[in-house]
Write a structure and sequence with these properties.
Chain lengths: ~140, ~140
């Protein structure tokens, strides 16, 4: 069991804070705006494209320079996925996620932030999301 | 084509912050800022990683509620939908993100930045089925 280290916790907390503020400022906590982006046949809302673009402006150069960095500041190694194969789980999972996302305009990040409204819809969605994760884990996890 | 009212500066600014969040987590802790992965890890096993996962999620909620209350941003317009619909959607999002190893943040923000072919396929797939679902809901069923 890895020891719990204070710098690691502080950075995780700070990262979560930035993420939450970013989701709210960008308007991505609004299912209306997200559905507006996905509704290409309606009055299209391009906001999500700017959000993804803005995020990638930062993450692309940073992730591409990780090899030169060698190792993270407060951990032994980068925990990066190594798989390259496109299997049925990846495509089916992404397809099902997209259907759920398109039904109500909530993906996991904004859904968690929506919990702070203390409203029934947010709790019902996040409760089902956790149940869905558990069902996948119990039935299909190797 | 008619565009909805939107602010590209808010989108870009918020996106830069989300990117900075993901950059901080990978550079400092070596972890991918994928929300479904962070939550799923907590459900899977309660090990030494639980503490940082909880710290991240606490920050996410705090940051969200702070920005919404101090910045005057509305939280969740359009959240109030029929509960059975929310339940079905939640199950699909939970099951699908775990089966597909990620969501908008893990595949979209981090995976694309790693130039991962798996993340590109996943992102195109969920964007595609999401757009198709919205098309059917809004323009075929007119719900």
């Amino acid at each position: 069991m890895e020891p719990v280290r204070i710098p690691t916790l502080c950075c995780a907390l700070a990262s979560g804070l930035l993420f939450g503020v970013g989701l709210v400022i960008s308007g991505m906590v609004s299912p209306e705006r997200v559905l507006g982006f996905l509704d290409v046949a309606g009055r299209w809302d391009p906001t999500l494209a700017f959000v993804m673009g803005g995020a990638l402006l930062v993450t692309l150069p940073v992730f591409q320079s990780l090899p030169r960095l060698g190792r993270p500041l407060f951990a032994e190694r980068f925990a990066l996925p190594t798989r390259k194969d496109i299997d049925w789980q990846l495509v089916t999972g992404a397809a099902l996620f997209g259907i759920g996302w398109g039904l109500v305009g909530l993906c996991p990040g904004p859904a968690l932030v929506a919990l702070t409204t203390l409203s029934t819809p947010a709790f019902v969605f996040v409760g089902s999301l956790l149940a869905g994760m558990l069902i996948q884990q119990i039935t299909l996890e190797k | 084509m008619q565009l909805a009212e939107f602010s590209w500066t808010a989108g870009l600014g918020g996106g830069l912050l989300i990117g900075a969040a993901a950059a901080l987590l990978i550079v400092a802790n070596g972890s991918i800022a994928g929300i479904s992965g962070i939550v799923g890890g907590l459900l899977k096993r309660w090990d030494g990683s639980a503490a940082w996962r909880l710290a991240f999620l606490a920050g996410l909620l705090l940051g969200g509620v702070a920005a919404a209350s101090w910045g005057g941003f509305p939280l969740g317009p359009g959240l109030d939908r029929p509960l059975p619909l929310l339940a079905v959607a939640g199950l699909l999002v939970g099951f699908g993100t775990r089966l597909g190893s990620g969501c908008t943040s893990g595949h979209g923000v981090c995976g694309l930045a790693r130039l991962s072919p798996r993340s590109l396929v996943a992102t195109l797939t969920f964007m595609g089925t999401a757009a198709l679902t919205v098309f059917i809901m809004r323009h075929v069923l007119e719900a």
